[in-house]
Amino acid sequence: MHPPNPPAALHALSGLNIAVDDAALLSLRFGDGLLAPAPLHRSASDLRAVLRNADAVDPSTPVYTVYRGVTSEEVRSEIERRGLLYAVLVLRAGSIGQERARIRGHINSHAAGTPTTYPEVYEIWQGRALLYLQCEASPDVSDVVLLELSPGNKAIVPPGWASLVVNIGEEPLVAGSWLAEECRPQYAALESLGGMAHYVLAGSEPPGYDLEPNPQYRSVPAPRSVLVQDYPNFGLTQDEPMFTTFRRNPDVFRFMTRPQDYAGIWTTLYS
Predict the structure, then answer these.
(1) Is 20 part of a structural domain of the chain?
(2) Taking burial as the number of CB atoms within 10 A of a residue's CB, which of 8, 22, 60, 111 is the most buried?
(3) Does residue 75 contact residue 247 with C-beta atoms inside 8 Å?
(4) What's 195's domain CATH number?
């Protein structure tokens, strides 16, 4: 078992008084002034449809915990007024069968009255993550993008892309995420395909994982790696936690709730 983080360990990167409470139980401790919802616990049984070999995995294995709707007393009304939601993820280390520990994988719902799906933003506070992005949730995929993220890094899931977060480090992964309050993860399309276009397998050589094409897809491109970058136009830089950015400028994440207004940016974000 990993020892609990001291309260200051995650504070500098999250901008929140937050700490790992129990690494084995994938739970967090929230300090004074923070409002946290009841955690949503996910086990291997919840991922069965998207695992490479679900029969080889104990279905009761805890995999990750999500706190969907974390806020603070000082900005709660501002978050609600702007139609936003802040979620926190704790993802176990190690493997699930032959795969690196990962979340379920999803594509986001559409912004009301538009053909544009909602984006999502991740910020890593502890551990190492692989953000796996594929531009279609269909049997023929034309582009796959990989971003390796370390503490302090931020990354955007653009509209239209399916996403998967994988723990490629040796400790529980802890991350924050902004999304629109009306955004709902959609799982059915990926579940019908047995998961993403690649399985992220445990690997002994750097970077610590291997990719294996999912045979249920008709066409799968070679993934391309993209370097982590700042997004100053969206208020996302390595210099400041994104919750702190919201406190300073509550209008900065308008792109989360009005993604259709930024079509020109989405098409070139990872080109």
Answers:
(1) yes
(2) 111
(3) yes
(4) 2.60.120.10
